[in-house]
Design a protein that fits this description.
The protein is mainly alpha-helical and about 170 residues long. It has seven helices and no strands. The relative contact order is 0.15.
């Protein structure tokens, strides 16, 4: 088994990592959770919510893994139909990832963001399935992402249920 990463694949990975981190940055433009924020002052949150300082390193790691996985897939050849489909689905879920931040933090749409993150979770599962069929290692790299978004889905739903008037 050849485990050496070819230069072209490495460049694609770097490009997709940068794109994923930029998407994450776009989401942070509205993710305000400081002591005077809507999130801190107006929302009731479950006791099991992780501390705020945990989110940035977790998401940074996930975006890096997402980019590496996408680079692996794209390196399999854009001319292949399954690579095109998997890449488009990846880009859709990346857009949904950014949209959730705007719906939840920017627009304070608790029900809408709960529905949206459930769709995001489904799209991540589709991405993993498609990646597995093309290059299993790329699918494995997304396991932490699907686990974290599964937790985030439950957390988003809990916040929505605890704040019915919002």
């Amino acid at each position: 088994m050849n485990t050496k990463i070819q230069p072209r694949t490495l460049y694609l990975m770097i490009g997709f990592v940068i794109m994923s981190l930029l998407a994450g940055f776009l989401g942070t433009l509205v993710t305000i959770t400081g002591p005077d924020s809507w999130f801190a002052l107006e929302l009731i949150k479950p006791a099991w919510q992780p501390p705020n300082f945990l989110f940035a390193p977790v998401w940074t790691t996930l975006y890096i893994l997402m980019g590496i996985a996408a680079g692996y897939i794209f390196a399999q050849g854009w001319e292949k139909k399954e690579v095109k489909i998997a890449t488009v689905i990846f880009l859709i879920q990346l857009g949904l990832n950014v949209l959730w931040s705007y719906m939840f933090f920017g627009w304070h749409m608790l029900l809408g963001s709960t529905i949206e993150i459930a769709v995001l979770l489904a799209m991540i599962c589709v991405t993993i399935y498609l990646y597995y069929r093309i290059k299993p290692v790329a699918a494995y790299l997304l396991i932490p992402y699907v686990l974290w978004v599964s937790f985030a889905t439950v957390l988003t739903a809990a916040i929505w249920m605890m704040n019915p008037g919002m």
